[in-house]
Amino acid sequence: MKGFKGLSYLIYQEDIFKQFLNNNTGMKVLIEVDFSINTKDEKDAEDTEETPFIKFRSRRFEILNTDDISDVLSKMAQDIIRQISSSYLRESGITINKIERITIHYDKYNPTRAGSYIELPKWVSSKKACINIKNEDNKCFKYCVQCSVFKIYEKDNPERMRHYNKLNDTIINWVCMKFPCSRKDIDRFEEENPGLISVNVNKLRNKTTITYRITKVKHAEHHINLLMIEQ
Asked: pTM of this prediction?
């Protein structure tokens, strides 16, 4: 099979994605690749003036931080190669000739990330089981973790920022974190705080909660259950 090296073209698109992320909070991206092909019946192929093509499309991926870009580009290329290598092509007598065109589709994305304050739905707030911190920056995840570790939930009005602005946090390692944070950032956060913190994240759907992220950390000193709210 020829032409696979053409997928290396994707690595040169990192700067475009980085520029896009500088102006937007996130993006969703996928690629479509058109291949010229050779069919089992070469006679039919010679009778037509048009070169036969086949199109493959990758999954759609979220890119939330610039650190995600290289990994996502690699996964999209792997998606295409996996489809090319499928038994369906071999059994149908189709062989790939070369890449004719690569199309990158990307658009703005309002990511489900731990960000700033969003008012809780009434059916949630009425249960009095969730502390919704009223921050105006993108560090909601940080304040939620601190609320648990430093037992701010035991104080009056734990949702108010005055508790967090004056906090002397020398316990938790925040060096690796980017805000607003993604699931990958939370993975790194747990790794940088081994045995100290584990985090589960749930989301709302149709007036119920669904699991968004389950920690792999066992027996951490502080286990935290977060609820992610979307506008």
From this structure: 0.57
